[in-house]
Structure formats: structure tokens, C-alpha cells
Design brief:
nine-stranded antiparallel β-sheet; nine-stranded mixed β-sheet; 2 helices
């Protein structure tokens, strides 16, 4: 085979390589979709795609759910996250995915979520609690099940409610103040940016059920 033909074939393969966008597998896999209902998309630097059962989630993905939609995802740290409708949720960091990532960090821009962390015996506990950052407060999670979200019972688009459903403890921090949720059914509220969390109290059954419905299937 002539050298010219070899270079021509090599050029064709190089063009195909670039055209299909083939690259080394992405290593920053954060988790996987385990359940989905309705229109749910992920937005990333590489584009926007509809999510379906089994799809991979990467660090940096922004997950957006539509009307009456739901998403459940299992992250690589063992946490299971459920998103309700009209929610925007960003995967910032997942413990163990990148070097020195000793906790997981997410962002709730709007909407509602429920999270269940891995059992303590399944993985070593992080040196820091898992965190969910929101526009009004930070939620710290220490091995537990919780619900958090905005506008519960029409409280307002910037009013954040958080309740511990089960487990070891949750904190909510804003405006330099922190409150601790220490028992199941205990919750707090932050009434907007710059506001401190309200004193904790056990939620009434009506409010607790309303929160659960937002992430029910």
C-alpha cells in the first residue's frame, strides 16, 4: 500500500473520530437515574438531554424537572435523591468521585427534594456533613432522611422548609445562625435570603403529608 493511501486512510479515521465526538470515557460519574416520571432533563456544558432510567449523571449536571415530573437518582456515595416537579438541582460534588472529595455538595435552586443517605456501615462517614446549598440557607446532612423545598403550602417562592424524616440529625444555617433538627418530624423554616432559621418544632401531620406528596410517585 502506498504511503499516500496510508495517510489518506489515517485522515479518514481521524475525521470520523472527531465527527462522532469519540473521547476517553468521562470519569466524573456522580450517579445514575433509578426512576423517572414525566419530563426531566440534565443540562451540562456538553448540551441538554432528556433523562431516562439508567442514564448517567455527571458532576456539574443541572437537573430540571417539568410539571408533575419526578426523578430518583442513586449517587456514588450511596445517597438516594428524589426530586419533585418544577425543581432545579445541581450536582456539585460527590464524595469519592474526585481526589480529596470528603463530602457531597448539591445545590437546590428551586423546587423540592428528599434525600436518604447511605447507612453508616456501608461507607466511612465523611469528615464534613453532606451539604445542600440553596439561595437562602445551607442544609447539612449527617446520615439521615430529610425533605427540603420551597413554597410548601404556598409559603412563598423564597421560603425554605426543611424537615428531618428519620436518622441522626440535620442542620440549617443562614444569616450566621444555625439550628439543629434532632428527631423525626422536627422542622424549620427560612423566610428568604438574609433571614435566620426559625426555631425548630415538630410539624403537624397536615404539613408533613403535604411535603411527602411533593415527592410521591
Amino acid at each position: 500500500m502506498s504511503r499516500c493511501k496510508i495517510w489518506w486512510i489515517a485522515g479518514i479515521f481521524g475525521w470520523l473520530f472527531a465527527a462522532v465526538g469519540y473521547a476517553a470515557p468521562k470519569t466524573e460519574v456522580a450517579g445514575y437515574v433509578t426512576r423517572v416520571r414525566g419530563e426531566v432533563v440534565s443540562e451540562a456544558a456538553t448540551g441538554r438531554q432528556m433523562l431516562a432510567l439508567g442514564h448517567v449523571l455527571y458532576l456539574g449536571d443541572r437537573i430540571v424537572t417539568g410539571t408533575d415530573a419526578r426523578l430518583e437518582a442513586r449517587m456514588r456515595d450511596g445517597m438516594v435523591i428524589t426530586l419533585g416537579e418544577k425543581t432545579e438541582f445541581v450536582v456539585r460534588q460527590v464524595m469519592g468521585v474526585t481526589p480529596n472529595s470528603n463530602n457531597s455538595i448539591f445545590e437546590l435552586a428551586k423546587g423540592v427534594f428528599r434525600s436518604v443517605t447511605a447507612q453508616a456501615e456501608a461507607k466511612p462517614q465523611p469528615r464534613e456533613p453532606c451539604r445542600v446549598e440553596t439561595p437562602v440557607a445551607t442544609i447539612g446532612i449527617r446520615g439521615t432522611e430529610l425533605w427540603g423545598g420551597f413554597n410548601l403550602l404556598d409559603a412563598g417562592a423564597r421560603t425554605l422548609d426543611v424537615v428531618m424524616l428519620e436518622g441522626k440529625g440535620v442542620y440549617v444555617e443562614s444569616a450566621g445562625k444555625r439550628v439543629e433538627l434532632k428527631r423525626a418530624g422536627e422542622g424549620t423554616m427560612v423566610k428568604g435570603a438574609g433571614q435566620a432559621p426559625m426555631l425548630t418544632k415538630v410539624w403537624k401531620e397536615e404539613k408533613l403529608q403535604a411535603a411527602q406528596r411533593t415527592v410521591a410517585w
